[in-house]
Amino acid sequence: MKRILTLISVFVLFITACEGPQGPPGFDGFDGVNFVGQSFERTVDFVAPDYRVEIEIPLDIELFESDMVLVYHLIGVDNDGFDIWRLLPDTVFPQNGGQFQYNFEHNFDFVDIFIEAPSTFDFNTLLSGDTLGQTFRVVILPVDFINSVDLNLNDLNSVMNYVEQD
């Protein structure tokens, strides 16, 4: 009985001796949804002669020189009702032949989205479905984050797991 009491006493003494002050909090991991980027959507119309739209980056989004700006084009809805997004540049092959591309440029204040095509392309053949009511999602991600995770940038759903939406 003395041995059991001694073992219990040593065990309790050992447990209490291992306690100490709590250390500093660690860094949050990339499990679940974490805020590391921001996004916003705009629906625009492309009109002649330049087929270009300038979209202002919202003032509450701070864009750093090292940030990566991605633009996705809403191209439809699947059978389950989910949006289908495609990363720009996005080449389109219209039924009447030829090809054109939705593309973009950006600076710290604006994202310019435009339609570009070879010099032989007749912009008069563009259908209203190609130029009017086009929805784009602009996503801004820190480049350090992009380099630290295995992220498929072509898959908007994967990217949006790490983005706070505006």
Describe what this molecule looks like in 3D:
By secondary structure, the protein is α+β, with helices and mostly antiparallel strands. 19% of the residues lie in helices and 35% in strands. The strands form 2 sheets. Strands 4-3-8-1-9 form a 5-stranded mixed beta sheet. It has a 4-stranded antiparallel beta sheet with strand order 2-7-6-5, with no helix packed on it. A hairpin with a 5-residue loop joins strand 3 and strand 4 (83-87). The longest helix is centred in the N-terminal third of the chain and has 16 residues, at 2-17. The chain is elongated, with a radius of gyration of 26 Å. The relative contact order is 0.25. Residues 26-34 have low confidence and may be disordered.
Helices, strands, pairings?
Blueprint (H helix, E strand, L loop, with lengths): L1 H16 L19 E8 L7 E5 L10 E11 L5 E5 L2 E3 L7 E7 L3 E7 L11 H4 L2 E9 H6 L7 H5 L2 E3 L1
Parallel strand pairs: 1-9
Antiparallel strand pairs: 1-8, 2-7, 3-4, 3-8, 5-6, 6-7
Quaternary structure classification: single chain
| Helical residues, percent | 10-25%
Structural class, by secondary structure, is alpha+beta
Low-confidence stretches: 26-34
Strand content: 25-35%
Average pLDDT figure: 81
Distance linking N and C termini: 68 Å
Largest sheet: 5 strands, mixed
Total helices: the number is 4
Shape: elongated
